[in-house]
Amino acid sequence: MTLARRTLLLSTSLLAAPSLVRAQAAPIKLGTLTPLTGAGGPYGPVMAACVRGVVDQVNAAGGVLGKQIELISEDDQTNPEAGVRAARKLIDVDRVSAIMGTWASSVTTAVAPLAWENKVFLATVSGADSITLLPHNGWLVRTQPNTTLQGKKFGEFAVAQGAKRIFVMMPQTPFTQSQFAAMKAAAEAGGGAAELLIYDATKPSLRTEVDQAMRFRPDVIVAGGYTPDTSVLLRDLYRASFSGKVLAFAYAVNQAMLGAIPKEVVEGVMTLAPSPAAGSGGYAKVQALAGTQAPDPYTCQIYDHVNLVLMAMAKGGATTGQAVHDNIRKVSQGSGESVDTALDGLRAIAAGREVNYEGASGPCDFNEIGDVLDVKFRYEQVKAGALTLIRIA
Amino acid sequence: MPDSFLFGAILQALINGVISGTILAVPAIGFSAIFAVLNYPNFAIGALASVGAYGGLVANTVFGLPLEVSLLAAFATAAVAGIVVEWVAVRPLNQAGALMMAIASLAAAIVLENVIRFFWGNGLRGYDLPMLRDVQFGAIRVGPQQVKNFGISIAAMVALWAFLALTPLGRAMRAVADNADLARLRGVDPVRIAAVAVALGAGLAGMGGMLIGLDTSIDPLTGPRLVLSIFAAAVLGGLGSIPGAVVGALVIGMAEELTVLLIAPSYRSVVGFVVILAVLTVRPAGLFGARA
Amino acid sequence: MTALVVEGLVGGYGPDDQVVKGVGLTVAPGRLVCVIGPNGAGKSTVLKLLAGLLRPMAGSIRVFGQAVTPASPRAMIAAGCVLVPQERNVFGALTVEENLLMGAYTERGRAKSRIAEAYARFPLLRERRRQAARTLSGGQRQVLAMGQALMAAPRLLMLDEPTAGLSPVAAQELFATIRALADSGMPILMVEQNALDALHVSDEAVVLVDGRNAHGGPARALAADPTIRRLFLGGRAVPDTTKEMSA
Fold first, then answer.
1. Hey, what's the signal peptide range on this chain (chain A) (predicted)?
2. Which residues of B touch C92 (CB under 8 A)?
């Protein structure tokens, strides 16, 4: 089924390729692998376009190590099988040095082994804990806080709302169990109880699941799915006249959802998301590139990916995945000159100075297994049909 | 769980299942009708359901038409798309066998899905409908929209029954499904009947897509997500049998809800596969099927 | 005027698969003409050509003096030539009445009056009219198949092995029905495997061998002709009976 789509995209990228190839031989090849379709579909196109913007700027400024950058953008369809096929194409056909932007944890989990086996660096926005626990030997980093941390924040937030009985409804994902465990621990630490129900995200109605939830008599329901299934769930919670609070991920209860479902259904829903570094220099650059005052966290993160990858290549003096692998932490953290764009960073590196990248999504400092160290969270609530900031902490 | 509690939960799940099964029956009938007359499984049925859902969306939100009229628009849009798929993608392969035609329909489904994406993007869209709270009857909870969709599905099935049983064209369609050679000998034009069957099947799928969307919201994958359930319902009832598709859809609808309650919600999509496997093992002709 | 005159009919399933290589036939009103011959002689193919299911490569067909081109089943129904095929000749899932209505598919306006005629002719069909055709016995199905064909008000009725698969008793009953139909004025062209009985009930017969006319004439005379008896009847009667018994 997806074969034809793949062929179509392949031929499209083949058609596009000649215009990208500049005078220099052997350009630097970079790939984005973002969801252009599926649950991540609202984010992937913006993410790919942001990377394109950075690459164009760097190419215009002379490229990296005297070479132009050729960007190949592929669609993972928010689907591991399609993701693996697209990654194979990026690795085997395009021979990219790095792949950036894998969004769904299931896709990242499937693609990561291909990357490290072929010495291709992988930068991801996926949150599942299991990802950085893979034996990747330094071949991946992520800018998204892991889901245990997110689950803990969720649990703490629920308790702070006065919740004693928390019912968590999530589809099956690589992070469902670990995230729930963290929520439950936070809830129990606050004297509450939590129960998990895993539902099928493809179901057009979740009435029976909501009945299950209501029998638990929860005062907070955590809707832990993606946009399509969460909108089904919120409707069914409304129909069932659930009177407690609803917490959800900001990537699910987003502008797209607010425009698509009746206001009263989402009214009062609280959301939580790792917060981009609003007000930082990098964030301002993403605002300009994405053409919006409120770029989503993933676009901020992939902006950081491409900047880090290009600077690591410059730092290592080579354009291979190995160079990125060996040098990324030398540009992402430390006591060097603070930069928020590859343009500045590349100039500094060329001048022999150390750099410390401070990105649009946050400080972008990584531990030894590739988890990002410090991220703020943003809490919002739907009021009168619009997402309203409660706090960033 | 105490017994009475479980009993109430099961009753509620069964009611939910009957309602979702009845709505599922609409596209399942469409799938079976196409199979009965053209002898291949049209897997574009899911994408056609999405096409109908968006056709109804345009009628409802752009032209401001009421729900019932929008459902007819959903039917018409999907019927036209179904005929285009049939003529452009499937018919040229009708000498190559049912498998090739099924594959062509899959390919067409991808095209349709992406045509929708091209115009409306990936995001969710909702119909212009008031959001109503459920009504509680003792332990049982029923939604007004749910009941309305149930009624519309029943009405669509009655209309279909009347068409098939009482009109010469409907009778001719059943005759072709039963014995195409004899129908041709009696002067029935097979090409015309094929077009009617495709339009009818695709139209019902489109209506089903919109009915499902009414209860939730729609995106390009609204229909494709249903393909497994539709196929399982048709296989269970006996491929090509219209009463079979209705019964199959009811069984699938109830089984999916009971799975949520008695096993685990995430095993819901297993129901379709298990049913297909069981039917093919035990009774390949399905419950109502004449052909093996 | 003669109901059907066929001359030099040639046709088959493709240029390399000619089954009918030159056949002539004449059917007069009220006459029952049977076509017999060994397996593969092209008997059923002649009927398919005359019903518009296959396109002839050569030959002429005249129905009541009018030249007819068998372009499609529809064209042949319009010309008045209606075929009852050998197998699967009713719509099993449809009711008896719906089967009859399908017989008048090309002339739906006349269906009502003709259905009354059909019920008058075959009272059995009226009794069973709400029943699915698949629930009928073999003999009843053949009656329904003929009733369905008559709904088109044919000027020539063609029957392809009507007694195939019937018990001897049911076959005799059916032959009687066919005979009565012919006696009422309907010209009938019948292909039969069961040659001896067919000759017995028919007025005239045509014997086909390898796609060509081999013999022809009054049925009674042919039945008595020792050559015919030896060639087609003696050897075939025994296996045919076993087939009927087992069916």
1. 1-25
2. 178-179, 290
